[in-house]
Amino acid sequence: VKAAVKEGEWNTYVIRAKGDHVTLSINGRQTVDYHEPDATIPRKGKIALQVHSGGPFQIEFRKLELFPLD
Predict the structure, then answer these.
(1) How confident is the model at residue 6 (pLDDT cuts 50, 70, 90)?
(2) Dihedral over Cα of 24, 26, 27, 33: its sign
(3) HEC profile for the chain?
(4) Mean per-residue pLDDT for 26-55?
(5) Is the pLDDT of residue 5 over 80?
(6) Which end of the chain, C or N, has fewer beta carbons within 10 A?
(7) How far apart are CA 17 and CA 15, in angstroms?
(8) How far apart are the first and last CA of the chain?
């Protein structure tokens, strides 16, 4: 992941979730390709932005776009 992140610049983060399949990409480099095995986890619901990290820092989001998948 560190190789894909542009420190001090804007980065493009793409999250694609279709059914049980989730992929994540940072600046065009895929970092996660995951299939959720637990069928009891809902496949739809609210969307939230969250950070899991230690220490104080600032995070900003811009140009958020949501697209339905066919």
Answers:
(1) very high
(2) negative
(3) CCCCCCCCCCCCEEEEEECCEEEEEECCEEEEEEECCCCCCCCCCCCCCCCCCCCCCCCCCCCCCCCCCC
(4) 90
(5) yes
(6) C
(7) 7
(8) 29
Distance CA 54, CA 15 (A): 22
Residue 41: pLDDT band with limits 50, 70, 90: very high
What CA–CA distances, in Å, run from 59 to 36, 38, 45?
A: 28, 31, 24
Edge-first strand order for the sheet with 29-35 is: 13-18, 21-26, 29-35
Distance CA 17, CA 38 (A): 15
